[in-house]
Amino acid sequence: MRISFVIPFHNEERNVRPMLDQVSTYARSQKWEYEIIPVNDRSTDNTQKVLGEYAKKDKRIKPLERKHDREALGNTMGLSLKIGTNKASGDIVIWTMGDRSDDSTTYGYIVTKIIEGYDMVFGSRYMSGGSRGSLDAIKAFLSSNGTKLAQLFFGVPVHDITNAFRGFRKEVFQRIVIESNDFAISPEFAVKAHLAGFRLGEVPTIYTRRFEGASSFKIIKMSLAYIVVYFRCLLRLTPITK
Q1: How many C-alpha atoms does 45 have within 13 Å on its Cβ side?
Q2: φ, ψ for residue 167 (rounded to 5)?
Q3: pTM
Q4: Which one, of 130, 84, 83, lies nearest residue 110 by Cα?
Q5: If you average pLDDT over residues 30-34, what whole number do you get?
Q6: Which of left, alpha, beta for 196 (phi over 0: left; psi -120 to 50: alpha)?
Q7: Which residue in 93, 124, 106 sits closest to 2, CA to CA?
Q8: Residues 106, 10, 78, 162: what is their CA dihedral angle, to the nearest 10 degrees?
Q9: Dihedral (C-alpha) 98, 164, 236, 198: value to the nearest 10 degrees?
Q10: Statement: residue 191 has pLDDT above 90
Q11: Given 58, 64, 97, 170, which residue has the most CB atoms within 10 angstroms?
Q12: Are 4 and 90 in contact (CB under 8 A)?
């Protein structure tokens, strides 16, 4: 079984080296067959240069670059995740953030859960054993309640779908229609996968605030984006599967 790690980077030149080392070290310790697909999302620093240097040393690192264009404006993390996942050759894809906020030890639990029969498995900060860690209280309140709304409206059986940190079978991504290009990709993908009949699971994880750089987390904008996604799914104004 092959694992593909898709990692979006936006102006993360100080995090590229430790992040790629972190993922590679863990994947090798598990003796996985793996690849790492870093996606440079319109960075204006030396992110692309550092990624290129790493790719020359390790053929399992396959960087992609999305330059400035008119396809999407503002935050485009979701678009980067879609581009990277489309290129992934693994049976299982893991989304993990380039700012090192995700706990790498969770990767193994996610993969194990998928092997057990789940189609999409979330690193959950809000289930028993999980922790929001250094995430501030306001963001934690909004993110946890974003999932509670999805539980109420759609019966989603997990506790943390607003966090992009997850693993899934590649076939799930190939079946689901994902319209969001920003942070709203996280709940949209989860809700639609659930509505399509895929089996969702979760494992506890601990969140760590970004080590370097400034967060682009826009609380109000994100909250509104989540509500729009739920509204469209609830009224079936958006296709669920291809």
Answers
A1: 12
A2: -125, 155
A3: 0.93
A4: 130
A5: 98
A6: alpha
A7: 93
A8: 50
A9: 120
A10: yes
A11: 97
A12: yes
DSSP classification of residue 19: H
Cα–chain center distance at 160: 12
Tens-digit pLDDT profile for residues 136-145: 777 777 788 9
Q: In the block, which residue shows the tokens 């790690």?
A: 5
The first and second tokens of residue 79, run together, are 């678009």
> Which residues face 231 on adjacent strands?
none
The average pLDDT across 146-172 equals: 97
Do the Cβ atoms of 85 and 173 come closer than 8 Å? yes
Q: What residue type is assigned to position 48 of the chain? A: Q
Tell me which residue of 194, 134, 195, 145 sits closest to 168, measured CA to CA: 194
Which pair of tokens denotes residue 53?
């240097």
| Nearest-angstrom CA–CA distance, 208 and 239 | 34
Domains, the chain, in order of start with CATH, read 2-234 (3.90.550.10)
Contact 36, 9 (CB under 8 A): no
Cα gap 232→87, rounded to integer Å? 28
User: How far is the C-alpha of 126 from the C-alpha of 77, rounded, in Å?
Assistant: 23
* Count of beta carbons in the 10 Å neighbourhood of residue 68: 8
